[in-house]
Design brief:
Layout (H helix, E strand, L loop, with lengths): L4 H26 L3 H6 L4 H22 L3 H26 L6 H31 L1
Helix pairs in contact: 1-3, 1-5, 3-4, 4-5
Length: 132
């Protein structure tokens, strides 16, 4: 099955998002320098979640590029895990934990991006499978 254009676009978004997430998260986690200082009151469990998720973003992107059904399922799992981490961040904030507003904005963006990728991927892959 040739890969539909919308899956290729989602694959590129997932790969770029994943590589940026790994790079930026790695700078804060592993290099004591300007990136860590600029991060301010980052929330460690969110930072680790996003860093590890970046590798799954890349895996999902590769699977989407190849139009694999498992990549749609992985995208859905990433979206759900991201929303669970976002909920945990909400609990952290409600309990008085320190955070940065940009962390909230980033989690909203991540949730929306992965919901869009998951929806598009599952819909496209299932339609292509039904057409076979």
């Amino acid at each position: 099955m040739p890969t539909p254009l919308r899956l290729r676009i989602m694959a590129i978004i997932a790969l770029v998002f994943g590589l940026l997430t790994i790079f930026k998260g790695g700078q804060v986690l592993f290099i004591d320098g300007p990136a860590r200082a600029a991060a301010g009151h980052y929330v460690p469990f969110i930072l680790w979640f996003n860093f590890i998720a970046g590798f799954f973003y890349c895996l999902a992107g590769a699977g989407l590029w190849l139009a694999r059904l498992w990549a749609g399922r992985l995208s859905m799992a990433i979206a759900m895990a991201t929303m669970l981490a976002f909920a945990a961040l909400g609990v952290h904030i409600l309990m008085g934990g320190a955070f940065e507003m940009r962390t909230l904005a980033a989690m909203v963006l991540r949730s929306l991006v992965w919901l869009a990728i998951a929806f598009t991927a599952c819909r496209t892959l299932l339609a292509a499978r039904a057409a076979e």
